Amino acid sequence: MRGLTWAALLGVEGAIHDKYDAIDKDTPIPTDRQIEVDIPRCHQYDELLSSPEGHAKFRRVLKAWVVSHPDLVYWQGLDSLCAPFLYLNFNNEALAYACMSAFIPKYLYNFFLKDNSHVIQEYLTVFSQMIAFHDPELSNHLNEIGFIPDLYAIPWFLTMFTHVFPLHKIFHLWDTLLLGNSSFPFCIGVAILQQLRDRLLANGFNECILLFSDLPEIDIERCVRESINLFCWTPKSATYRQHAQPPKPTADSSGVRSSTPFFSTECPDPPKTDLSRESIPLNDLKSEVSPRISAEDLIDLCELTVTGHFKTPTKKTKSSKPKLLVVDIRNSEDFIRGHIAGSINIPFSAAFTAEGELTQGPFTTVLQSFKGKVIVIVGHVAKHTAEFAAHLVKMKYPRICILDGGINKIKPTGLLTVPSPQI
């Protein structure tokens, strides 16, 4: 049932056979040579895919995709991406083609443009921020030795892991991937790194390159479990990408699908508001170690008011401990004039010693007691908030993020509080 279940999850519908039959899969095209070279190297341990019939089907499905997407190009790796769909729908090429055509815009939007470097660069930058968010110690080590995602993660994401895992593992992984949204792959990537964590931390650049040239055995069950956990800890705007697929306008009002799992937050996509994240130039994004989160997410996480279109259906137990800490790094005068309820004030100018340690102040212990929970840095100078966050990451604080747009984003909401005057 997996082939049909996946097709349903991908929203495949309509006259898929007529559509597939109408595509010219015979006229020679320039891509034919590359396809001929790639097929005999793609998941050939499998007897279906290595059979002459398998090769012929591969060729037709891949050509159909290339011909029907004139704005995109065939990149090496597209064959790997096709393999799971072809295997599951071996006697239904039209369905294999339809699934692949639905999967790519959702998870790999514009990855197959002729010039895809801006898309890939943004994706890898967000991935770096996710590593820092979930595992600062590993992030610090990998950055120090210069082992950046560009060196190992492109085949992971470009093929959604089909280039690095055998089919039986991909089925298990994609069963979960297809329930998550387009940012779920970041969590899979972090989960893979965390499985290799001890070896990565113990080694330098060359050893890491070797380790990844032939990826060691990964426990896929554990990988799935851990990626779901990472996903649940990630504020949804932290993985915002300006090159992701734009949200579809929801025409029907019955867009609420109650059967979706608890970690799927993209059905339907929230409308963009003044409190959403803004796009920033790639170079600015690259200069920030920690991810930004939207004002919307912050309000939601602080439970300041019950606004927001998205509420997790998991039971919210009102524990006395808040689940996140807001650190306001403006000077104390600005802080007194108005701040987010429950936030603490650690002015940027005097927050760190020359050695990069936290200066002991009234709130240092509060900050330390929140190590491990989500900590949001708020200010009004973006460069300062980014630097403050980077300092905390250096000190191995996980789950650090920056409020996108700073305190000015919160001002119009009327949610800032002023302390009562001391009489």
Automatic annotation (TrEMBL):
| Domain Rab-GAP TBC: residue ranges | 1-181
Q: Which residues lie in Polar residues bias regions?
A: 251-263
Q: Which UniProt keywords apply?
A: GTPase activation
Superkingdom of this protein's organism: Eukaryota
- Renumbered residue ranges of the record's region Disordered: 241-280
Is Ion transport one of the keywords?
Answer: no
Keyword match Protein biosynthesis: no
InterPro entries attached to this UniProt entry: Rab-GAP-TBC_dom, Rab-GAP_TBC_sf, Rhodanese-like_dom, Rhodanese-like_dom_sf
Q: Where is the Rhodanese domain?
A: 320-419
Under PROSITE patterns, the record lists:
RHODANESE_3, TBC_RABGAP
Task: Please state what the protein is called.
Answer: TBC1 domain containing kinase
Its source organism is Ursus americanus (American black bear)
